[in-house]
C-alpha cells in the first residue's frame, strides 16, 4: 500500500517500507554525506586502504558464516571500544549480511 512521501508538502506516493520519494531520499543522503565528510576526513586514508586490502586478501571468505565472499574488513574489537585501528590481528573479512548483523549487535550493547 502506498503512502505520501514524509517530506512536508510532497505529494509523491511511495511504497510501504519507504519514507521518502527518490528525489527527497537522494537529497537527504547528499546532505548526510556532506556533513559526514570524506573518507580521508573520517580517518580512512591510505593506511586504512592498505589494511583493508590485507584483511580481504587474507580472509577472502567471511569469517563469521564461512560461505560468502568477504566484502568488509571488520574490526573485531570496535575502535570505539579501544580496538587497534591498523592491527591485522584486530581485523577479519566479513560478508555484508554478517557485518550488518555484527554492527547491529554492537549498537545495542
Quick take:
Helix content is 37%, strand content 11%.
User: Considering DSSP H and I runs of 4 or more, what fraction of the residues is helical?
Assistant: 25-40%
Structural class: alpha+beta
Number of structural domains: 2
User: What is the percentage of strand-forming residues?
Assistant: 5-15%
Indicate the mean pLDDT: 93
Could you characterize what this model shows?
- The protein is an alpha+beta fold.
- The chain folds into two domains: about 5-35, no CATH class; about 50-105, no CATH class.
- About 35% of the residues lie in helices and about 10% in strands.
- The protein contains three helices and four strands, in the order ββααββα.
- The chain has a two-stranded antiparallel ribbon with strand order 1-2.
- The radius of gyration is 18 Å and the shape is elongated.
Lay out the secondary structure.
Elements lengths: L2 E2 L8 E2 L7 H15 L9 H13 L13 E4 L15 E4 L1 H12 L2
Using brief descriptors, characterize the structure shown:
alpha+beta, 4 strands, two-stranded antiparallel ribbon, 2 domains, elongated, 3 helices, 109 residues, 37% helix
Amino acid at each position: 500500500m502506498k503512502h505520501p512521501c514524509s517530506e512536508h508538502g510532497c505529494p509523491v506516493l511511495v511504497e510501504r517500507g519507504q519514507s521518502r520519494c527518490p528525489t527527497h531520499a537522494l537529497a537527504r543522503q547528499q546532505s548526510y554525506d556532506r556533513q559526514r565528510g570524506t573518507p580521508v576526513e573520517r580517518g580512512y586514508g591510505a593506511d586504512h586502504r592498505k589494511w583493508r586490502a590485507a584483511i580481504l586478501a587474507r580472509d577472502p571468505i567471511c569469517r563469521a558464516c564461512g560461505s560468502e565472499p568477504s566484502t568488509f574488513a571488520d574490526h573485531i574489537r570496535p575502535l570505539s571500544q579501544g580496538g587497534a585501528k591498523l592491527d591485522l590481528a584486530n581485523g577479519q573479512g566479513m560478508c555484508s549480511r554478517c557485518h550488518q548483523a555484527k554492527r547491529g549487535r554492537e549498537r545495542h550493547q
